[in-house]
Design brief:
It is a single chain. The protein is an alpha/beta fold and 291 residues long. 36% of the residues lie in helices and 15% in strands. It contains ten helices and eight strands. Strands 1, 2, 3, 4, 5, 6, 7 and 8 form an eight-stranded mixed sheet that branches. It is globular, with a radius of gyration of 18 Å. The N and C termini lie close together (8 Å).
Length: 291
Amino acid sequence: MRIDLHTHSTASDGTDTPAQLMRNAAAAGLDVVALTDHDSTRGYAEAIKALATLDRGLTLVTGAELSCRLDGVGLHMLAYLFDPHEPELARERELVRDDRVPRAKAMIGKLQELGVPVSWEQVARIAGDGSVGRPHIAEALVELGVVPTVSDAFTSDWLADGGRAYAEKHELDPFDAIRLVKAAGGVTVFAHPAAVKRGQVVPEAAIAALAAAGLDGVEVDHMDHEPATRTRLHGLAADLGLLATGSSDYHGSRKTCVLGEFTTDPEIYGEITRRATGAFPVPGAGGSATA
């Protein structure tokens, strides 16, 4: 089985619609794909509907990537197979989403002060129906010729945490995120925990504390982790009793990663589905819900 547990659609900051993402995942030879838009579950219905139209069997894992912050350091928490209607977690996701527009406008204002002729109208056009975020602003900077790629916008000169055009938004405490996701029957995995190229990361002691609080796993095999980092994280996961996942963090044409670039071991996927009680994987035509 080929299992990719981290992808994004136009419901947040990807360029594929949820339906296109399902078609592309099937074409890439995946057996299981997780839809993990930022703080959003809006893509679920379209993705599930698209599963029935596929010639190849594909199973959908519903999820989200939750925006968190610990001791001033931003981090992302992948949440899988939670009940999307559980009120407390739904309320927190809404608070994060509602803060995205004021935050984006604040960053645009900072960029304008730096002499960059970016506008809210340009960023809103790029975001479309998605939850506006830094990748949309980064794409605007590419359009304006300020930076050559989206990744080049995530530096201290521009949009990285603490960068010249950075602005904060409402974010969850990761310990609260773990508690809320568990209460909603879901499973939590710390996304790209050592992606230093994105900015400051939390120390391993913090990962240990999160594990003690009920964190289920860490995303180890990821494009932003060098081989030595992946080896170290596999060892850390084993020491802490955490599940080690792998995934593409696919965003369509917005990033260079491809579907299935990194994958999750079927036994790990099976354990995730066994732990989840809030929702179940959705099999398409010929798909299999469990490993």
